[in-house]
Request: fold
Amino acid sequence: AELKATDSDLWNRLDAVVLQWMYATVSQDILQSILVVDDSDEECWKRIAAMFHDNKHSRAVQLENQFSNTHLENFPSTKAYCNRLKTLLDQLANVDSPVTNTRLVLKMISGLTDAYSGFITYIHQHDPLPTFATARSHLEIEESTMIQ
Reply:
């Protein structure tokens, strides 16, 4: 019986650590929505999962819209532009709306300004299209060449 009490104490301490970690890693808005007195980490996790699962489809629509409307002219550099595309790519994957490499590369070049028309032609001539990482690297080189 003493061993069970010790196991229970350890379990409760570990549960509290996990719960504190969850509280510390969510935004204040989400924290206010999930905070419950005498909660368990399992119940907290279920509330967080339900909150995000309920919003998955509407979040996917919102992210798709942002992805489609991302253009270089709204960023200070190609690096910032590509970072934003990559962030949106990751967020879309997280809501079960993954973006293929082909679509990502085509979006990257379609969002460029006219100053990059030569680069756009260069990418279009690749069959198959390069990976996003490769196209991004070439784009950053193109930008640095244009600046010089």
